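Quick one: structure for this chain?
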Amino acid sequence: MAGGMPVWKYLSNRVLTLVQNAMLGSKLSEFHTGFRAYSREALLAIPLLANSDGFVFDNQVLVQAIAARLRIGEISCPTSYHDDASSINLGNSLVYGMGVVRTSLEFLAWRWGLAQPRIFSESAQDRLSVASHGAGPR
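Got it. Here's what it folds into:
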């Protein structure tokens, strides 16, 4: 919050992170910064085109990486909130939060074999095989 993050965003991020870690069986310190780096192999291993065009895209990619059992490392980064740095308002934040919960529920349904959500449409093992052999789009 030292970087100007509003209290409501901080609390929402912490609650969503706690909920997602519980639902996904992960131990990430934060799901919602939007600052990510992925290897080429990781990007080839997940069906990016199945994801949303909105703010929840980043979260979907992270959940897909968890589903594919990709290694995830975390590096802390400073926050800086001002008019040009954060374009998500309260309304969009609520839509994002619901998208995060939906993505987590889809993950659980997929893991338990109850559904085949589009964002988990291919088996993680098949995607990893394609990525490790260099096949697929370039």
